[in-house]
Design brief:
The chain is an alpha/beta fold. It folds into two domains: 260 residues, Carbamate kinase, CATH 3.40.1160.10; 83 residues, Archaeosine Trna-guanine Transglycosylase, Chain: A, domain 4. It is globular, with a radius of gyration of 22 Å. Bound molecules: glutamic acid. Glutamic acid (GLU) binds next to helix 3 and strand 6.
Length: 396
């Protein structure tokens, strides 16, 4: 399928994400923009790389077909309906343009549940792997038409990051309408300059990234950074770069300096389950632990025992996700709890020998526990939960 493998460059699996404002205009799908994007995808394929594309634009492409614009402020259900109209229009263009390069596109529509329910996750992973093996270019979007609004992602940046984990990508390229992450908002500060490399996404950077930047897309820099962090924790190098920069995909994959903002991957790749606990699932409550337990969890990779529990905040059930905070109230980890909040409050501070028969003494097992970097960022809330409430305050 039009693939001539270059022997010199190592083959990479690349996830390339492009946003609504880059692939649609006032009249719907921007064919030329998709053609430019797909030409770059074809260029990567010519070098032998495996490429998954993640594209937004279903809603923005569907609204004009229904005689509406984003400014009309349609309700969520209408936007979901618009996505059904727009997704097929979007896909028609991708199919045509990829076909012009001798490539076959394959639409994959995902919802958060596909990452949260293990057997769905495995199915999605299997299908994407087979598509890549068959030489197809998967074209991924959120299944907006049917996604549950309470938990839908709402922006494709995080989907792209989770897909990057799913396909064990080497590089995630998040294309946007700025050269990358800048030191300040260029609309307010003419001296804003590009941050070329990020070693670890922290609270300070999140403050720099601010909120949503464009009227059409729903992502903005904050969600790109959140996605880059998921990628970093997945062992995937993330590059945030301009959609209009010539050769942006090839340069991002080759690691050309100045291509955009590169977020370095962590040395240790988090498994799917822990990634899900850390980033996808919302926390139902907080368990405050004593200093001894906090140190043991941070330093010795142990399970949390009832004896280390100080206070229980919120109402949760067994298997819900909870934040773990130290005595100072700072959240340092997240995990799945094995007992509900009422039972846990009754067990708090008790030694294992003091617990009734059959009560799990490991209240958060170490396999279900993820230590988070020290930031004030949204990871404790869970990205999906954060996104659904953010989504309500903005319009695509
Ligand atoms: N999935 C939405 C769409 O295709 C857009 C999400 C986003 O803006 O990232 O219309």
């Amino acid at each position: 399928m039009g693939e001539t493998r270059s022997r010199e460059q190592p083959v990479a699996t690349v996830v390339a994400k492009i946003g609504s404002s880059s692939v649609t205009g006032a009249h719907g799908v921007d064919v030329d923009a998709i053609a430019r994007f797909c030409a770059q995808v074809a260029g990567l394929r010519d070098q032998g790389h495996r490429v998954v594309t993640v594209t937004s634009g279903a809603i923005a492409a569907g609204l004009p077909a229904l005689g509406m614009t984003a400014a009309d402020g349609a309700d969520v259900v209408t936007l979901q309906a618009a996505s059904a109209v727009g997704q097929s229009r979007l896909m028609r263009v991708y199919d045509d343009v990829l076909g012009g390069h001798g490539l076959v596109g394959g639409q994959v529509l995902l919802t958060p549940l596909d990452f949260m329910v293990r057997h769905q996750y495995l199915h999605a992973r299997r299908t994407l792997a087979r598509l890549l093996d068959l030489g197809v270019v998967p074209v991924v979007n959120e299944n907006d038409a049917v996604a549950d609004d309470e938990i839908r992602f709402g922006d494709n940046d995080r989907i792209a990051a989770l897909v990057a984990h799913l396909v064990a990508a080497d590089v995630l390229v998040l294309l946007t309408d700025t050269p990358g992450l800048l030191t300040a908002d260029p609309r307010l500060d003419a001296g804003a300059s590009l941050i070329e490399e990020i070693l670890e996404v922290d609270a300070e950077l999140e403050a720099v990234a601010g909120g949503t930047g464009s009227a059409t897309g729903s992502g903005g820099m904050a969600s790109k950074l959140a996605a880059a962090r998921i990628a970093a924790w997945s062992g995937v190098r993330a590059v945030i770069a301009s959609a209009t920069r010539p050769n942006v995909l090839a340069d991002a994959v080759a690691g050309v300096t100045g291509v955009g903002t590169v977020v370095r991957p962590r040395a240790k790749r988090l498994g799917a389950r822990k990634l899900w606990i850390a980033f996808a699932v919302g926390a139902a409550g907080t368990v405050v632990v004593d200093e001894g337990a906090r140190r043991a969890l941070l330093e010795r990779n142990v399970s949390l025992l009832a004896a280390g529990v100080g206070e229980v905040r919120g109402t949760f059930r067994a298997d819900d996700a909870v934040e773990l905070a130290g005595p100072d109230g700072r959240v340092f980890a997240k995990g799945l709890v094995r007992v509900g909040s009422a039972a846990l409050a009754a067990m708090a501070g008790k030694r294992t020998s003091e617990l009734a028969e059959g009560v799990p003494h490991e209240v958060v097992h170490r396999d279900d526990l993820v230590v988070l970097p020290s930031t004030n960022g949204p990871q404790g809330r869970g990205y999906l939960a954060a996104t659904s409430s953010e989504k309500r305050s903005r319009r695509t």
